[in-house]
Design goal:
single chain; about 140 residues; mainly alpha; Serine Threonine Protein Phosphatase 5, Tetratricopeptide repeat; about 0% strand; disordered C terminus
C-alpha cells in the first residue's frame, strides 16, 4: 500500500514538474511575443514622426512651386501628427510655415494666429534649452 502511495506521489510530482516546465515555456513564448509587440509599438511614434517630417518637406516643395493650398494641407497634417506625438519643435516648424503661407495668401488673421502659437513654442523651447545649459539648475 505504501508503494502505491509512493508511485502516486511520484506521478503527481512528475505531472507538477511537467506542468511547470510547459507553463514556463508558454510564459517565455508569450514574453517574447510581448517584447516583439512592444518593439513594434515603440516604432510607431518613429514612423509617425517620419511621416510628419515628410509632410513638412512636401509642404515646402508645394510652397516653392506656388501650390499654397496644397502646402497648407500638408503642414496641417504634419502639425496634427507633431501634436499627437508632443513634438514641440516639429509643431513649431509646422506652425511657422503655416503662418508664413497664410501671410502669402493674404489671410493675415490666420497668419498672426499661427505665428503667435509658433512664438510661444519657440520661447518654451528656448527656455528649456537655457535651463538645461545653466549649471545652477538641478534636474528633477
Amino acid at each position: 500500500m505504501a508503494m502505491k502511495f509512493l508511485k502516486l506521489g511520484l506521478t503527481g510530482l512528475m505531472a507538477l514538474v511537467i506542468m511547470l516546465v510547459i507553463g514556463n515555456l508558454q510564459y517565455s513564448q508569450n514574453s517574447n511575443y510581448l517584447i516583439t509587440n512592444s518593439t513594434a509599438f515603440a516604432q510607431i511614434p518613429t514612423e509617425r514622426k517620419a511621416a510628419a517630417d515628410r509632410l513638412l518637406q512636401q509642404g515646402m516643395q508645394e510652397s516653392l512651386s506656388s501650390q499654397f493650398q496644397a502646402a497648407l494641407k500638408s503642414w496641417q497634417q504634419a502639425l496634427s501628427i507633431y501634436r499627437e506625438l508632443k513634438d514641440r519643435k516639429g509643431e513649431g516648424d509646422a506652425l511657422r510655415n503655416l503662418a508664413t503661407t497664410y501671410f502669402q495668401v493674404g489671410d493675415y488673421d490666420k497668419g498672426f494666429e499661427y505665428q503667435q502659437q509658433a512664438l510661444t513654442i519657440e520661447r518654451e523651447i528656448k527656455k528649456q534649452e537655457d535651463e538645461g545649459n545653466d549649471p545652477s539648475v538641478i534636474p528633477k
